[in-house]
Amino acid sequence: MSTTESRVPDEVAAILARCDLDQGRLDRSVFRDRAVYELELERVFARCWLFLGHESQLPRPGSFLTTWMGEDQVLVVRRRDGGIGAYLNSCPHRGNRVCTTEAGTARGFVCNYHGWSFGLDGALTGMHEAQAYARTPDFDRARLGLTPVAQLDTYKGLVFATFDAAAPPLAEYLGAFTYYLDVILDNDPDGTEFVGGSIRSVLSCNWKIAAENFAGDALHAGWTHASGAQATLGRAVPDLSAEGTESYQANVNGHCWEFNLDAVGNAATLHEPRVLEYLRANRERFRDRLGDVRSRMVGSISSVNVFPNFSFLPGQNTFRTWVPKGPDRTELHTWVLVNRAAPQEVKDAWRKGAMMTFSPSGVFEMDDGENWELSTRSAAGFVTRQQPLHYALGLGSRVPRDELPPGELPGNVFRGQVNDANQRAMYRRWSQLLTAESWADVPPDPDGEQP
Ligand code: FES
Ligand code: FE
Q1: Whose CA is nearest to atom 4 of ligand 1?
Q2: Distance of CA 220 from the midpoint of ligand 2 (Å)
């Protein structure tokens, strides 16, 4: 499958030239420009590994869900052989959507328009008025199945796919970031699952503003969410940049994790005692499995973005994708992740707490949306968008490897979670992908920031 079809338009090259990430400057048109957006669909979303779902959503042959890879809708299916397939959810006949529901169980899929039918493996299995096709020369059923993704793989329960056959394998794409992912995905030998159901909502913002918020914006937490924290914690968010606070930003290949080591700070905002009891009661087990440093990250004040658009919050355990719907529109899909072996009351408490905080009516989710919408909207102003944005917080804060705990915290690590280091790394990766002709031109790790 070819995923590159154009060169970088002059307009996009000019916008990228006005961004200087080494100085922490970003041009506002990256959130507004249609040509930038179209190039993102081609060179970011049709090229990167994207999150499709959790294996627990596809428990048996015929289980399926529909989701988005960029603006391409895909149908993700547990096949009869037990493997997972993902196909464009568009009929090869005239393009109609083949599956119109979000999730369920099926023996196959029948297109609503002219009745072409497809198996769980995506193959064309039958047609309405089949005799007419039988008389049609060279009608080759075998070539008219649903178009599959180029590569699909899983990492500890999470299912990812890419449209680009030349993309590096998922293990290489994630790289050393798996050290951090295991904090949430592998703190228990029985693994994780999504609780049933998901929530979709729409934001009038650019997808990157949401992604960068989760990549590294600890700065907004105590300010934007001050009243939410009062409501759930009964006190303000602690000063995250206070002297002596042990906190970091870390990134690998543009994947970002900002965190401190307080063990339960995020989880506490759920206002669910059962969740805190669970985390505290299992602290020794987490330490045995993950070591001391990571055991203190399981529920800590932290946020994560797996490049490009898959985010989650450890502790609150809201998992989400920012699905692009145009430069100034983002569809948010959210799920709640729990340890499979956790007691049902703990799972229920986690789901309830996540809904109280990070759902469309959640106290924290509501705080963020308006800021992101107005940040996007301001770039519409001709004069306003000539003014660069500030991403310079924490320049020069990289921690030399020999000052980190031995064998811990791989990747590019920066002192202090109140920092823009991760956002700079995310935009470096983004910019490198936009200008690269193919994966062969993408450097292995974008973070060239010097100490
Ligand atoms: Fe699907 Fe015609 S569009 S059968
Ligand atoms: Fe927020």
Answers
A1: 114
A2: 7
Q: 271-310 pLDDT, tens per residue?
A: 999 999 999 999 999 999 999 999 999 999 999 999 999 9
Per DSSP bridges, beta strands 124-126 and 84-88 are unpaired
Question: Which domains occur in the chain, in start order?
Answer: 53-153 (2.102.10.10), 175-441 (3.90.380.10)
% of residues, the chain, pLDDT over 90: 90
Q: Is 146 in the pocket of ligand 1 (CB under 6 A)?
A: no
| Position in ligand 1 atom list of the atom nearest CA 116 | 4
Distance CA 117, CA 110 (A): 4
CA 21 to centroid of ligand 2, rounded, Å: 23
Count the neighbouring beta carbons within 10 Å of the beta carbon of residue 108.
16
Active site amino acids: 114, 217, 220, 225, 368
Strand partners, 73: 68
Residue 451 scores a pLDDT above 50: no
Grouping H, G, I as helix, E, B as strand and the rest as coil, residue 61 is coil
pLDDT at 1 over 90: no
Please indicate, yes or no, whether the overall pTM of this predicted structure exceeds 0.90: yes
Quickly tell me which residue has 């990134």 as its tokens.
Answer: 251
Q: How far is CA 114 from CA 97, 130, 134, 299, in A?
A: 12, 11, 16, 51
